[in-house]
Design brief:
By secondary structure, the protein is an alpha/beta fold. The protein has a nine-stranded mixed sheet, sandwiched between helices. Strand 4 and strand 5 form a beta hairpin. The protein is elongated and about 60 Å long.
């Protein structure tokens, strides 16, 4: 699918739908809340990539026998993973990348839309074979699952164009700031708010929603003075809102994203890392990142639990 920015009118009327949702997915906690009202639709992605026999030999027998990886993904994180215009197909950068990785392993990838904070639990329980949803790699997660690094992202703030509320990320005391539930950005805002209250200033009011599209809409409507999200999503939101939002400040706290693999499947996790190396070598990796405007997040050190 050729990547296109959607018209502003479509974005405004559809911000609350999964197809245009934009979620920051880097939580420092595993979370165990139920899935939000996202669709349960799934998509089987195909690719013409060539199978690598050596990599395919590393696939566990139980997965190889069924030929398909069931992938848990919160399809509310454009451009990384979101619902296409047909209302059911999961598409995006992560989808393209992991579909190519699965092909190297001789497998297909079936993406199932799920609430972000339910995916790791879904992987550990066996509901999903892997989780692919822009998960930031951190120590808490590595205690529960294996994580394969594949991309680097940071945090980006965004405000209404012109910054009418004169938001300063380093002095946001008393402001209403939009943020997605269960993300590292909540930890960021909580720490900033504590500095405010420790200094005798008003706390930051967090406008939290499970759906990042609603967080974005809250800034456009003026309910929130600003928002912060993972950098690919924040910058993509700026582009999609047709000039209604602007990025504020530089990207910071960059960290790798990781594919979530069961803790018992370390060898399979390594096979996935090796498959990423293979698609990097044949040019698929960089071409995919460029297609989705995320080439600056490319890495070369694909690894298990870095």
């Amino acid at each position: 699918m050729t990547h296109r920015l959607r018209p502003t009118a479509v974005l405004i009327t559809g911000l609350a739908t999964a197809g245009l949702a934009l979620s920051a997915c880097g939580s420092n906690t595993l979370g165990n809340s139920s899935a939000s009202g996202s669709s349960s639709s799934s998509s089987s992605s195909s690719t013409s990539a060539t199978v690598d026999p050596a990599l395919a030999a590393k696939v566990p027998a139980n997965i190889k026998s069924k030929g398909t990886l069931v992938v848990g993904s919160d399809a509310s994180y454009a451009p990384n993973e979101f619902i296409d215009t047909d209302g059911k197909t999961v598409v995006g950068m992560d989808v393209d990348l992991f579909t190519a990785v699965a092909a190297k392993l001789g497998l297909k990838a079936q993406f199932q839309n799920a609430g972000f904070d339910t995916i790791i639990l879904g992987v550990t329980s066996g509901k999903y074979d892997v989780g692919v949803s822009s998960f930031t790699i951190n120590a808490d997660r590595k205690k529960q699952v294996n994580m394969v690094s594949y991309f680097n992202a940071g945090t980006q703030w965004a405000v209404k164009t012109g910054n009418p509320k004169h938001v300063d990320p380093n002095n946001a005391c008393g402001l209403s700031i939009g943020v997605q539930k269960g993300t590292t950005q909540i930890d960021d805002l909580t720490a900033r708010s504590k500095k405010c209250t420790d200094a005798g200033k008003p706390a930051i009011k967090q406008i939290i929603d499970a759906d990042q599209s609603k967080v974005t809409a809250s800034v456009i409507s003026g309910k929130s003075d600003a928002m912060l999200a993972d950098s690919p999503v924040g910058l993509y939101a700026v582009k999609q809102t047709g000039g209604q939002l602007q990025a504020l400040g530089a990207i910071y706290d960059s960290a790798p994203y990781g594919i979530v693999v069961p803790k018992s499947e370390t060898d399979f996790a390594q096979a996935i890392a090796d498959a990423f190396k293979a698609i990097a070598a044949d040019g698929t990796y960089k071409a995919t990142l460029t297609k989705w405007g995320n080439d600056t997040g490319a890495i070369t050190d694909f690894a298990v639990n870095p």
